[in-house]
Amino acid sequence: MSSLDLDISKRIWSGKIPVQIVLGTHDPADTLFMEVPRCSYLPLLTSTLCTQWDRLETIDPGIIWYDYDGEPLKWHYPLGLLYDLWCTAYQKEKKSIKLPWKLTLHTDTYPDVLLQNPTIDTMKDMYMAMLKEADFLRHGSTKKVMNLSKQDQSQLWLALTTERYDDYWHVNHQILDDRTGPAGTEDTASHGPRHVPLRLYLPNQCPVVQDLVSFVTENGEPNQLDKAIRQLVPSMPLDVRVMAHGVQLPGSVPIRWAADCLSYPDNFLHLVVY
Amino acid sequence: MSMMSSETPSSSDALDDNTAASLDQVIASLKTKDTSKVIVRFCAIGNAPILKQSYYKITASNKFQTVIQFLRRELKYQGTDPLFLYINSAFAPAPDEQLSSLYKCFGTGNHLIINYCTTVAWG
């Protein structure tokens, strides 16, 4: 990575959103203001809140959920992605999110629309599964993640939860190493990374779009964001906008660069299309 | 800019690939339920019971959660009986991932391999 890329990568890692957490009661004193990392997740926020709020001490974190504007928030999506989805949805209606982002915490009537049991352990499993899925797309197997030592795997998760960029990348460099081909062969010439771990999120409860997208085009040229999006959805309008980490991306962004510098800690490029 | 058109028929072919539609039309098209079937091959791991029939056709628009529930019913498992499902002996998808996406990304040959076991296999 160039020093500019490193700077971008670090800024993305440390991006934060100012939030106001309100308990689902009517007492205005039951509110807390804080900053949450864009790259973190709601179950990790819950874990922090349970140490800050006496009344949450005895509550099972597996039944805690959040809503914004009446809509339950998916706890397995990174916080930055959730926020960007709301920002772009509001933009369409010519509204904007008033900061701090006001989330209501609930301890009952867990919604059916959310995945169950948002505990730290479940979140860790979900995160590791996403890492493996990204690894499989990129390298054709999950060998890179599975070959990590137990200590390295733990370090990855710990680094994410404590926001330690260097500790995280110390391990993630091993996962993203594209130099070895399948079956551990050294093959730098023909076996670059295979497919981009990429998901597109469109508005109005559109199903998430995920399909095989290559890092290079049929001509062997580096693939670009706008081409990649139209490989996924051929009928995508020309004037569509793409956002990652709160930033609108130009269509000419090389997809390899985007995957290397703009992915979330799960090594997926989660892109909001609007 | 060149547009790539899909080779196989899909619900998005309702729109002419050479005319960019509006985003709303694209969304409506993506929300149209994909009624095509994905061939799923269930492979037992460890002590997990083996099914009489391992190949099934499941509607592509279903979420992975539906596949989990389907297998639990076929195995006649109760709610609390542990069962873990993996794609290609590699990873466990989130229950809300679409079967069509999983097949497109991880299918081998004409089917999607789903391994299952009663204990955690690949962590």
Automatic annotation (TrEMBL), chain A:
Regions crossing the membrane: none
Listed Pfam families: ATG5_HBR, ATG5_UblA, ATG5_UblB
Primary localization: membrane
GO terms classed as biological process: autophagy of mitochondrion; cellular response to nitrogen starvation; piecemeal microautophagy of the nucleus
Gene Ontology CC annotations of this record: Atg12-Atg5-Atg16 complex; autophagosome; mitochondria-associated endoplasmic reticulum membrane contact site; phagophore; phagophore assembly site membrane
Subunit and partners: Conjugated with ATG12.
Segments forming domain Autophagy protein ATG5 UblA: 12-107
Membrane topology designation: Peripheral membrane protein
Domain Autophagy protein ATG5 alpha-helical bundle region: 121-176
Family: Belongs to the ATG5 family.
Alphabetical keyword list: Autophagy, Isopeptide bond, Membrane, Transport, Ubl conjugation
Protein known as: Autophagy protein 5
Function text: Involved in cytoplasm to vacuole transport (Cvt) and autophagic vesicle formation.
Signal peptide boundaries: none
InterPro entries: Atg5, ATG5_HBR, Atg5_HR, ATG5_UblA, Atg5_UblA_dom_sf, ATG5_UblB
Organism: Hesseltinella vesiculosa
GO terms of molecular function: Atg8-family ligase activity
Compartment(s) where it occurs, according to its Swiss-Prot or TrEMBL record: Preautophagosomal structure membrane
Taxonomic superkingdom: Eukaryota
TrEMBL record, chain B:
GO biological process: autophagosome assembly; autophagosome maturation; autophagy of mitochondrion; glycophagy; piecemeal microautophagy of the nucleus; protein transport
InterPro entries: Atg12, Ubiquitin-like_domsf
Compartmental location: Preautophagosomal structure membrane
Annotated Gene Ontology cellular component terms: Atg12-Atg5-Atg16 complex; autophagosome membrane; phagophore assembly site membrane
Main localization category: membrane
Family: Belongs to the ATG12 family.
Subunit structure: Forms a conjugate with ATG5.
UniProt cross-references to PANTHER family, sorted A to Z: AUTOPHAGY PROTEIN 12, UBIQUITIN-LIKE PROTEIN ATG12
Protein name (record): Ubiquitin-like protein ATG12
Lineage: Eukaryota, Fungi, Fungi incertae sedis, Mucoromycota, Mucoromycotina
